[in-house]
Amino acid sequence: MKCGKPLLRSDSECCKDCKRTGHNFLRGRALYIYSDEVRASITRFKYHGRREYAGYYGREMAERLGSFIKGCGADCLVPVPVSMEKLKKRGYNQAELISERISAYTGIPTEKDLILRIRDTPPMKELTRAERMKNLKGAFKINSHVVKCRNVMIVDDIYTTGSTIDAVAAALLRAGVKNVYFITLAAGAPV
What is the pTM of this model? Predict the structure, then answer.
């Protein structure tokens, strides 16, 4: 009910992470479970220049998660920013490409410059939640003194522990955003 990860037990509403950790977002959903096949597809998209995957991902997210997005009353979509170093190396921000495609289908604008990643962070796939939070401390800042969106939908590629989403959500809430939600391509395996 909180992060959108699938649960192994039908009598639970939240995963173990959400039960023991407070989050800065209200709710989130993922399009896929982070299986080996999905991991391989996202790797090609992020690291092997397969920008065209954004069209498929964006359409699927708009179709399959559209009622969740609209039900949250999202005023805007905010892609998780990448550092300038990663942007130069990769040539694009995968979350931004997906967000723009979702915007085209839903009519909800993408605010790609609302938040900036001001510090490059090392990859976090092998880090614990506590290490991820420390890694992300001070990594994001709002790029404007005026935030017009009241209900924000963060867009990212993978949700594991929620550390990145929480860090972005915290910056948005400090800037006056009322409610923060998220959608991702994939979330961790059932717990």
Answer: 0.89
Query: Mapping DSSP to helix (H, G, I), strand (E, B) and coil, where does residue 5 land?
Result: coil
11 pLDDT more than 80: no
Which residues are bridge partners to 137 per DSSP? Answer: none
- HEC-encoded secondary structure of 58-121: HHHHHHHHHHHHHHCCCCEEEECCCCHHHHHHHCCCHHHHHHHHHHHHHCCCECCCCEEECCCC
Question: What is the distance between the alpha carbons of residues 94 and 87, in angstroms, rounded to a whole number?
Answer: 10
Decide if pLDDT at 180 tops 70: yes
> Among candidates 102, 127, 99, 116, which has minimal Cα distance to 167?
116
The arithmetic mean of pLDDT across residues 60-66, rounded, is 97
Residue 107 has pLDDT above 80, yes or no: yes
pLDDT (tens digit per residue) in 25-42: 999 999 999 999 999 999
The answer to whether the CB of 127 falls within 8 A of the CB of 156 is no
Sign of the CA dihedral running 36, 37, 40, 45 = negative
**Domains of the chain listed by start with CATH number:** 21-187 (3.40.50)
Tell me the per-residue pLDDT of 79-89, one tens digit each, with 9 for 90 and over.
999 988 889 99
Helix (H) or strand (E) holding 156: strand 151-159
C-alpha to C-alpha distances, 145 to 90, 114, 115, 166, 176, nearest whole angstrom: 29, 10, 11, 20, 10
